[in-house]
Amino acid sequence: MFDTHGRIKCGTLSVPDFQGSLADWTNLLGYQCIETGKVPIELANGWGAIKTLGARTALLAPPGGGDTAFIRLVEQPAVLAYLPMRTYGWVGYELTVRDVPSLHDRLRGSSIRILTPPERAPDGNGWTPIEATGRAGEVLFFNAVTDTLRDLEFPRAVADVDRIMVAMLAAADRAAAVRFHVDALGFSEGGTFRLPYPIINTAFGLPPETESEATVISVGRMPVCEIDQFPPGTTERKQLLGYLPPGNAMVSFAVRSLDAIRAPLIAPPETLDGALYAGRRTACTRGAAGELIELIEVGGGF
Questions:
Q1: Distance CA 47, CA 251 (A)
Q2: C-alpha–C-alpha distance, residues 110 and 136, integer Å
Q3: Which pLDDT value is given to residue 11?
Q4: Does the predicted TM-score (pTM) go above 0.85?
Q5: 3-state secondary structure labels for all residues of 175-240
Q6: Which in 26, 180, 284, 286 has the greatest CB count within 10 A?
């Protein structure tokens, strides 16, 4: 069963060029458009982004994943001060792919800008991920799963570009962000590790060998997100009043019970239809790093 507690159901992107981003995700990345429409009052109010009311939106899914995992595009004006990988909150989505080198060849020279091309993994087994940015400033990591990592089970790709397997969160206080995901949302703290992140080091002009510390949040053997301690110089993400954050705007998680969430909700839960919500209750909250989190109730309790 896919809809289990902690599962990433959707990553939402704020896109100033709606048609361009839609074409990138469907033509370059091979996602299918499941639904199109306009943001209803229930979502605009629940997100705390009332000016998105009536904005164009599209719900996309990888082939074969139309009822399980999604990317959502929401049209809104550009935030000129927004710099990818330089602000707190959701900074990237890692998607599982079938073949890293062939995807690299497809994206090279396209509107999805490659920041770090793949290289042979140090152990010679597989490839390092592609790190890239889309035309809306969204940060994307494309990674092929070949084995179990750090005792976690990552989903393997069925489509060329498949679902989000991990959401990356930039925190000023990593410990506080971890506590929120554990205490307020009912997830679990996994391992903490240090490694050089090329995309972080490039964004901040740091030496390539500079290491960042990160903690994995999981439910059982399923990864949920990665919370990274970002370098000095990271700033709060500026957003237009009444709109969603720019770039990687929001992550939607399946949770057993909205009543068990130990954090203030932006608005009372609403029951919504459509492929993403399927007649279930949903509400939003904000985490300790300022990240916007959408919660979709799938039944049961903690």
A1: 11
A2: 14
A3: 98
A4: yes
A5: HHHHHHHHHHCCCEEEEEEEEECHHHHHHHCCCCCCEEEEEEEEECCEEEEEEEECCCCCECCCCC
A6: 180
